[in-house]
Amino acid sequence: MTHFDIAVIGAGSGNFLMNRSLSDQQFAVIEEDRFGGTCLNVGCIPTKMFVHAAEVAAQVRDAARFGVDATVDQVRWTDIRDRVFGRIDPNSASAHQHRENGENTTVFTGHATFTGDHSLSVTTAGGSEEVIADRIVVAAGARPTVPAEIAQVPHHTSDTIMRIDALPRSLTILGGGVVGTEFAHIFSGLGVEVRIVNRGTSMLRKIDTEICDRFTALAREQWDCHLGQGVARAETTDVGVSLVLADGTRVESEMLLVATGRVPNADRLGLENTGIELHDDGRIHVDEFGRTTADDVWALGDISSAHQLKHIANHEARTIAHNLAHPEDLQAFDHRFVPAGIFTNPQIATVGLTEDEARRAGHRITVSSRAYGDTAYGWALEDTTGICKVVADQETGLILGTHILGPDASTLIQPAIQAMSFGLTAREMARGQYWIHPAMTEVLENALLGLGR
Amino acid sequence: MTHFDIAVIGAGSGNFLMNRSLSDQQFAVIEEDRFGGTCLNVGCIPTKMFVHAAEVAAQVRDAARFGVDATVDQVRWTDIRDRVFGRIDPNSASAHQHRENGENTTVFTGHATFTGDHSLSVTTAGGSEEVIADRIVVAAGARPTVPAEIAQVPHHTSDTIMRIDALPRSLTILGGGVVGTEFAHIFSGLGVEVRIVNRGTSMLRKIDTEICDRFTALAREQWDCHLGQGVARAETTDVGVSLVLADGTRVESEMLLVATGRVPNADRLGLENTGIELHDDGRIHVDEFGRTTADDVWALGDISSAHQLKHIANHEARTIAHNLAHPEDLQAFDHRFVPAGIFTNPQIATVGLTEDEARRAGHRITVSSRAYGDTAYGWALEDTTGICKVVADQETGLILGTHILGPDASTLIQPAIQAMSFGLTAREMARGQYWIHPAMTEVLENALLGLGR
């Protein structure tokens, strides 16, 4: 049994807690997998590296539209994979090593189970160790779910598909959310025939309806989409895997990727032995300061947050680090204006309320959408589908939401995030600064100028 | 002789004066060339369309680095050219037509010469017409200069080179400024051997020294650069044109592009017949409201501005339109935080003071630079050269300048322009909003976080 000041379960964003203001604390860092968590190892970062390779290949195929005839001679999948993980894996290993060598950190490689509010049993390769800590931070993340009717056929999840040894000729993706649409973009960009099966009638159903409808139409153009139907059963076939849909349609591919959602890992931590309460959806309940319902037990990131986003987890880690160091001066999470990027094709970025949400919240709103194609840089891109939409409150002039579909959406949206976060009105924002002509930012400027007053 | 309320010389940004608040005024619009001015016809917009085509071709050639083997089979120059001008020319024509049909606008197609402070002689195809106006706005722009030693050999300027009938095998560009480096990017991207001759030892010498040095090194890698020497003479050769430099070096190409600078068109307007005074560099002198030294004569854009930038000219046009409509409530130009984008390779964007300028201005500064390659999205791009640099005042925490070299610089810089324009400190900006992970914007976030306090 070893006693620590602070035990951290999960070395994803949890690994950012050990900053200068807590350097006097002895930390146990308990991680059963790789350091860096979902984001670094199986999420944000490697997917974006694959996305860019896919976009390079797609750009080659699309080059003729710009007067440049070009051919993809070969996609070297294993080279792409090894380039990505040749960068990721050492990075993860060095983060691990850094903690192993840390003066105030002890790393436990294994699975943690609570045996009480401040005691953990860690199952390691060498057996079991008991860790006692005055304060515990739970940052154990989430994992992909696989529906029961799929579990029996060969399938991948986002945890495994990036490390496959060869590209399949065809890939069925079950799920039309963020993960499904990003992988659809990756694999179709790299030349794989992609089929999507999604229970809902639209893709990315949580985003603004106008963007959602437009994206769903574009998804149908680029992928073989089967929307609005559940899977009745799954079969292994000579080709690979066949999903039989409710209406009898068979969707068959060499490979199957299940992207139907993620569940918090809270069910695997023995929380029944603690005072830590859960939400109905399995997330750990935390207050605005990151405190669980057990004294001196905190939680952050995908295991407790409604937003499964790395920038949220990082913010929560910074906030909890502060709160651990300054118990007399607790800071609250700031979850007011949470942006998200979806690196599918086209790229999407969104922040704040959708048009429908703004109406439902009782705002008298003004809405303005502008096409990329109506700005000079959109001409250069020959863009025909991009759109920037701003929803504002007509009384205050404040921006309630911004929703962008098109190239570089995740970069373009930042000034809107900034305006919302600092209370700048749409009009001030549009006219109180210069917008470089002819940069792509003009689509946001124009959308702002289009708002009613 | 016809009398008007307002005469506008130049239908570039000048064409934006006739807005709603001036709808009771009778306008003469005098344009000797195409509507839309430099930006639409021979500047910002077509160059960006060529730039993107060049980047598509360059991306194909660079694709192997991402595990995608690809080949450029053919660059269809005339198709690119005709796509660009097939969009530009009708746009210019329709802007012209719109004014021809305007109830309160009369278009004169010809060259205007002042015969007095409020009288103009317009030389048209049909002869000469006299235009009298109570108020006159001079928005006649600028034109490329060609040094005397070059004038005798065949050469292009930015006015003509985009409409050539075939790509040369090789192109010498005289001048290492914005125009020269954008065309170097365009033509080398499209497969032309590019040589640059520049009197200065560095390219883009007006930008921040760190960015300038980095760009100059990258220019040397991608183009055949002859820096730090003037041209002794120019000769026509069997190949095309040869520039003989001061040290005797001969730089020979099939085609020559002269990009040595632009001069305001103020010397062609008969200003000696008016009370309009000029700066030493030939620009029309205006006060902060856009007024020249002659009563009720105004000027805007490249003919008077120290910034030859379309977004400045547009701002000045909006301001003067207001001032014409509201003489009792004059608004001043806001030239505090003027950004600029340079769409060369890599792209560059800059706003505010350079590090040297900030020091010379007496600020106690803190400076932070971050490499694109040190952020997750930079990994995806496999970027090895991009950099984001922020210069801030250590006492106030305000951002004094931001300088970015790398992909999408002109979009990435917008939040910094916004922060500077609205007086947000670097620290507030970095931590008071979310930055999507892993978007390219994180390079700016990281640069901000790197500033000393």
From TrEMBL, chains A, B:
It comes from Nocardioides daedukensis. SUPFAM superfamilies: FAD/NAD(P)-binding domain, FAD/NAD-linked reductases, dimerisation (C-terminal) domain. It is an enzyme of class 1 (oxidoreductase). Disulfide bonds join 39-44. This is Mycothione reductase. It comes from the Bacteria. The active site is at residue 437. Residues 4-314 form the FAD/NAD(P)-binding domain.
